[in-house]
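Input record, target 12 of the design panel.
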């Protein structure tokens, strides 16, 4: 948990647009925004950098500060908490992506006993070996990023004789208004953020007669996660 004083500093950096690009500001200016001393502002920046919430560097133009993905996730966590407190949590998030063929390693991971048993227990179905890979447009990617801020089911990582397997987050979902499944968020993946990976108990390509470029709708209930 980040200290409230550090979170407020992170928030003030976001107000300075440090989440879009490196913001240029002095510790004197930051101190004014925080209503504190320059030494305290400087210490907050150092602590935020040490914890991985920001990156900073001095240049001929002054101090440049950028909020990292971890920092944005921390801001998002509080944002979602406030939305829940204010009763503004949406009932569901609907995403639409374009089907494409992935690297083909989804069946290998889904077939791992350490994953498969947990998926069956926590999702209530045995997943078809493989994932459905959907490419998201920039607007749909923003929805995915919001989704990642909400609570999820956690599939714990594990080790076998050869390697370790990382933790996976799962969001129960409905595919094309008909089939129950789940969106999975994998920390270590070959894909970039614009890819949505989906699992289900059936072979979705055959179930919906999907081809490369087909549009697929994914509905994720949000209220049920609380």
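The sequence produced for target 12 reads:
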């Amino acid at each position: 948990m980040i200290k409230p004083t550090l979170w407020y500093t992170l928030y003030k950096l976001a107000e300075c647009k440090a989440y879009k690009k490196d913001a240029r500001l002095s510790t004197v200016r930051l101190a004014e925004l925080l209503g504190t001393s320059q030494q305290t502002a400087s210490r907050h920046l150092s602590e935020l950098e040490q914890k991985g919430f920001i990156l900073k560097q001095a240049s001929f133009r002054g101090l440049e500060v950028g909020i990292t993905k971890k920092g944005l996730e921390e801001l998002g966590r509080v944002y979602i908490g406030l939305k829940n407190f204010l009763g503004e949590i949406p009932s569901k998030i609907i995403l639409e992506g374009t089907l494409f063929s992935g690297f083909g390693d989804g069946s290998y991971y889904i077939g791992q006993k350490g994953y498969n048993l947990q998926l069956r227990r926590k999702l209530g179905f045995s997943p078809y070996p493989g994932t459905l890979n959907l490419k998201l447009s920039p607007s749909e990617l923003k929805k995915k990023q919001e989704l990642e801020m909400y609570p999820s089911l956690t599939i714990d990582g594990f080790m076998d004789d050869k390697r370790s397997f990382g933790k996976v987050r799962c969001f129960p979902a409905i595919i094309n208004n008909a089939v129950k499944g789940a969106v999975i968020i994998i920390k270590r993946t070959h894909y970039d953020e614009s890819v949505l990976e989906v699992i289900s108990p059936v072979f979705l390509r055959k179930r919906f007669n999907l081809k490369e470029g087909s549009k697929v709708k994914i509905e994720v209930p949000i209220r049920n996660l609380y």
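The longest helix spans residues 69-85.
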